[in-house]
Amino acid sequence: MKAAYFAEHGGPEKIIYGDFADPVPQPGEAVVRVAACALNHVDLLLLDGRFPPPQGLPHVNGCEVAGTVETAGPGCEPHARGERVIVFPGFACGRCEYCLRGERTVCLNYGYLGAHRDGGYAELVKVPADNLLPLDGGISFEQGAALPMAMLTSWHALVAQARLAPGQTVLVHAAGSGVGSAAIQIARLAGARAIATAGSDDKLELARSLGAEAAINYRKQDFVEEVRRLTGRRGVDVVLEHIGAETFERSIYCLSRLGTLVTVGSHASHWGRMDLRHVYSKNLRIVGSNLGTLTELRAVLRFVKEGRLRPVVDRVFALSEAAEALRYLLERRNLGKLLLVP
Length: 342
Ligand SMILES: [Zn+2]
Description:
Helix content is 27%, strand content 26%. It has helices at 41-48, 97-100, 141-145, 150-161, 178-189, 201-209, 223-230, 245-252, 276-281, 294-305, 322-330; strands at 2-6, 16-19, 29-38, 59-60, 64-72, 84-87, 90-91, 111-112, 124-128, 132-134, 169-172, 193-198, 214-217, 236-241, 255-263, 285-288, 313-318, 337-341. Zinc ion binds at residues 92-96, 98-99, 107-109.
């Protein structure tokens, strides 16, 4: 098969588009013919070595895949060749203490497609059959590939972890990102009000078009001051944080009493300070959230099919242009998701 892989760490120029060994499925694994694969920020970390692929090099990136079942061997029932599917991107062992408690997202042996095993920057990818979800004909492959990480992460963070309720207000950072654009829509679906931040006018416009009540340009405005102004100095009930560093610290100041900050990533820095006085005197909650569950992804798919959630796709590249797509991502030029199509 053809794949866009890398054999040494570095920038997008390290991506090689060429022949790669076809995946050989074990019992319980299916091979999916990739119709579309989305790019993620983690792809850059895997490539440059900040998060070296645990299985070593060469490595094929790609966490989010939609396609058709190519091979479904023993243990893959009820899936059959030709079925349209998306791949649930997280793998759990099913045996550790946390899996047995039903909390598979914190499995001791958790792994991601495209990180802990070769992913979808390829014509074919092998995955555990348990990770396959039927993709309704009403949802395109491009839409299907654009939602498993971002939509699911935002859903689990806001609905399950932050317990966002109707009438509440949520601050969503980086409206132009997959997580941000999903979170604005999910907040609206939950009957909540969304305030978004972004660093450019087109991203602010996207935020408003997705239903954000207000959009703050964090390059031109102090987002803490703006949140205070927009909420009559009360603050927001929930902040969805995935930047880290100063954004994390200052997000704490945006919370109302009893508010919740839910963190799902650390794209700028893995570190964030906080003034503990705000946390204890206002009874704040700081919670982490990692991906989500298969059941939640099914719920997301239903809303996408009904047109009530819309994965935002910026641009589709050919698989052979993977290096160019990664450069585009690195330069943060994207407004929504970037996709590769073999
Ligand atoms: Zn486990």
